[in-house]
Amino acid sequence: MWSAKKWKSALQALSFLLVLFLHRQASADYNWVVKESTYTRLCSTKSILTVNGKFPGPVLRAYKGDTVYVNVHNRGRYNITIHWHGVKQPRNPWSDGPEYITQCGIQPGGSFRQKIIFSIEEGTLWWHAHSDWSRATVHGAIFVYPKPGTSYPFPKPHAEVPIILGQWWKSDVMEVLDEFVRTGGTPNVSDAYTINGQPGDLYPCSKSETFKLSVEQNKTHLLRVINAAMNSILFFSVANHNLTVVAADAAYTAPISTPYITISPGQTVDALLFTDQQPGRYYMAARAYQGNLAIGFDNTTTTSIVEYRDGNGNSKTAPLSIIEYRDGSGNGKTAPLSIIEYKDGSGNGKTAPLFPYLPYYNNTNAAFGFFNSLKSLDINQTDVVKTTTTRIVSTVSVNTLPCLGNQTCEGPNGTRLAASMNNISFVDPRVDILQAYYYYIKGVYKEGFPDFPPLIFNFTAEDFPLILEIPETDTKVKVLEYGSDVEIVFQNTNLVAGIDHPMHLHGYSFHIVGTGFGNFDVKKDPLSFNLVDPPLRNTVTVPLSGWAAVRFKARNPGVWYLHCHLERHLSWGMHTVLIVKNGKHPNETLLPPPLDMPPC
Predict the structure, then answer these.
(1) Does the CA dihedral 431-437-443-444 come out positive or negative?
(2) Percent composition of the chain: helix, strand, coil (DSSP 3-state, to 5)
(3) Which of 381, 438, 555, 564 is the most buried (most CB within 10 A)?
(4) What's domain 390-580's architecture?
(5) SS3 383
(6) Among residues 356, 353, 221, 195, which one has the least CA distance to residue 275?
(7) Are the C-beta atoms of residues 88 and 507 closer than 8 Å to each other?
(8) Model's pTM, two decimal places?
(9) Which CATH architecture has domain 154-321+347-376?
(10) Angle CA(457)–CA(463)–CA(467) in degrees, nearest 5?
(11) How would you class 391 by CB atoms within 10 Å of its CB: exposed for 0-12, middle for 13-18, buried for 19 or more?
(12) Of 221, 223, 206, 242, the residue nearest 356 (C-alpha)
């Protein structure tokens, strides 16, 4: 017989081999086929674009520091690109994904082997299409685990689950896009929000397919929450349970306990759910945060169910019933957020759990109270930019442009809606900017994106001269020297229709050092910046009638997209490009392009 020492050695060797196996699996190639698939939601069936027929798409798993390859095969009807949201891709913008920025689309019938280089990320990220409006259904989660031999900075959870918040249109999303681009107006609002692809109990023909999370009492579940919605910042909560937030955008945060979270399109939140309530069924729910109620939005609520089960997998309570009342026009509305009653088999009334608390749609204090509560965990002070070498102050605005020719447009006063940064509404080229930069192709883009708004006025006033609403249209980029210590201040304006803007930067995460309301004061406001434990994120929400300031070190050479993650604003031109030049050393230089880059 083996001695205890030999058994221990054998088990250690087996454990080591298992870790190696899992690591190799995480670094293996993925094969993804983009294709049309048929899905039924809200009592109607339509064809949607998917990856491998799944909606949401497959989970990509990796360890911190891994390199993963994804073979993307386009069997759909449209050009497609895939972006790995929040992955820094050091020196490798070639696989970053935004169409006409770092590549041209993968054409129908074409393929592209994308190289995803993970570096400092640890936690939850996501991937999505970055061409037209395809990301409405082409998206999925990325789980980045601690390196083998290391662990989370919190007790290992009993289980993990993606919570992907999305939007659903009954009509084809490409038709939604084509219509509002053609008319110059706003896109039709979505018909539903979804949790993991399902609308939930409050929508017609949806109850039986509502997503359910089965849990055991007194266990910890890691919820990997992703806002994949196209045009809505969302509140999310779980009835009778607080959430402990431990990470955001794949960077650990100081743990905070909260009854709800606010999450903008593009953002992720890692939250621990401790199942410490009485056995039962509890609703998870999400609905919009909309700072400006004058702008049309989807005001519905998506739900899923946390279902307590015993050790044998049996549910411990009867299902809930949803009560609906009708207004004078016969429109269905959700019952007041209070106790709901259901009947058991004997007709006896029983009390069901409370519906979760969600702040009201335009509760700005609640939305930014959550955002501002996030702080970095165990931050390395050398990573925080204390003194800047480059400062960019950029307005973010909704604008209007004159209607073209004899066309009738549906924007304000017969105009076409547009959007801008520093009064430039970005025009996408027909050759991608990365290719033009690398091969010195002239005429594709211009340098000279301004460091400061070209027009100075009271950005947060209520009334403006119409001339201020009309932006320049151009393809201007900002060039940064390698190693620059950069600060970007996003100044929101109330031109045309003020609203909150989630601004996302590719290739980097940044520290959010300050946010505020009103006009940014370049002398006074930096005095209150948090340079001690600012959160590290890749998407910052710029408040309505306010500003947000971020800082980062420009040490990732390449061409990197900077844009609003509300899809309609991206379509209207609220974006620009940062080109970070090569450094002096080989490891500070852009990698060469892969041989199978999609042709333009």
Answers:
(1) positive
(2) 15, 40, 50
(3) 564
(4) Sandwich (2.60)
(5) helix
(6) 221
(7) yes
(8) 0.90
(9) Sandwich (2.60)
(10) 65
(11) middle
(12) 242
**CATH T-level topology, domain 27-151:** Immunoglobulin-like (2.60.40)
Beta bridge partners, 480, equal 580
How far apart CA 239 and CA 358 sit, in angstroms, is 9
Three-state DSSP state, 521: coil
Angle of CA points 460, 466, 471, to nearest 5°: 80
What are the distances in angstroms from CA 48 to CA 35, 424, 466, 477, 565?
8, 34, 40, 34, 21
Question: Identical fold at 154-321+347-376 and 390-580?
Answer: yes
- pLDDT tens per residue across span 56-113: 999 999 999 999 999 999 999 999 999 999 999 999 999 999 999 999 999 999 999 9
- Ordered strands of the 501-505 beta sheet: 446-447, 476-480, 575-580, 558-564, 501-505, 539-542
Each domain of the chain, given as residue ranges in start order, spans 27-151, 154-321+347-376, 390-580
Rg (C-alpha) for the chain, rounded Å, is: 24
Helical H segments across 151-297, by residue range: 173-183
Spatial strand order in the sheet of 261-263: 212-215, 302-308, 281-289, 233-238, 261-263
pLDDT digit string, tens, across residues 150-171:
999 999 999 999 999 999 999 9
Structure tokens belonging to residue 122: 């640890």
Structure tokens, 563 = 């844009």
Q: Output the six-digit token pair for 393.
A: 């102050």
- Give the amino acid at 325: Y
